[in-house]
């Protein structure tokens, strides 16, 4: 049985994308395998599991990629990801429809690069669902810093206490708590909106 997310009286629900709404973990692993092979760095599933972070610069740091090679790794990542088409997590479309149907604002806060995120949202027919979308590079600092979530809240003209943030990693929880939102760590969910 999948866990149920019952919303508190909140005016907005903001989601992470990769791993929360999008089943992208396998795609990310394949992409990183190609990237690090091209850069001459050993990268297997154990390394991915141990060091994965939605902030890819933390991943680069953790595996010892020299900082001067980060731009090259970024370009390789975007190149290889273009060949991937991850689908939605089971139930994600229903969750988004339930939030939209509950008349709450809907936001997306992701570390993903904007062009890639927009491509995925368009492919899934989700572009029009979101009232605010914050991508990697939109805020001064990335997850787990609260800047991205604070930016989305300012776009929605809401205080942190009026929102719930839902993600799948410890960095999501850290960002949500630092921003002052109610935060849920739920890898798979069914949504029940409270009245």
TrEMBL record:
Gene Ontology CC annotation, any one: cytosol
Keywords from the UniProt entry: Hydrolase
SUPFAM superfamilies: HAD-like
GO terms, molecular function: phosphoglycolate phosphatase activity
InterPro entries per UniProt: HAD-like_hydrolase_sf, HAD-like_sf, HAD-SF_hydro_IA, HAD_2, HAD_sf, PGP-like_dom2
Gene Ontology biological-process annotations: DNA repair
Protein name in UniProt: HAD family hydrolase
Species: Candidatus Segetimicrobium genomatis
């Amino acid at each position: 049985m999948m866990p149920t997310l019952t919303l508190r009286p909140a005016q907005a629900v903001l989601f992470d994308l990769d791993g929360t709404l999008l089943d992208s973990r396998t795609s990310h692993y394949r992409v990183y395998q190609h990237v690090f092979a091209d850069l001459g760095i050993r990268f297997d599933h154990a390394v991915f599991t141990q060091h994965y972070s939605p902030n890819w610069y933390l991943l680069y740091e953790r595996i010892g990629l020299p900082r001067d090679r980060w731009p090259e790794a970024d370009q390789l990542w975007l190149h290889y990801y273009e060949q991937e088409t991850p689908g939605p997590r089971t139930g994600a479309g229903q969750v988004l429809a339930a939030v939209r149907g509950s008349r709450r604002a809907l936001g997306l806060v992701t570390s993903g690069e904007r062009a890639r995120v927009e491509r995925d949202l368009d492919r899934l027919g989700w572009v029009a669902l979101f009232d605010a979308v914050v991508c990697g590079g939109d805020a001064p600092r990335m997850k787990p810093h609260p800047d991205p979530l604070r930016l989305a809240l300012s776009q929605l003209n809401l205080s942190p206490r009026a929102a719930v943030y839902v993600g799948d990693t410890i960095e999501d929880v850290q960002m949500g708590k630092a921003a002052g939102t109610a935060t849920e760590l739920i890898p798979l969910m069914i949504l029940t909106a409270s009245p």
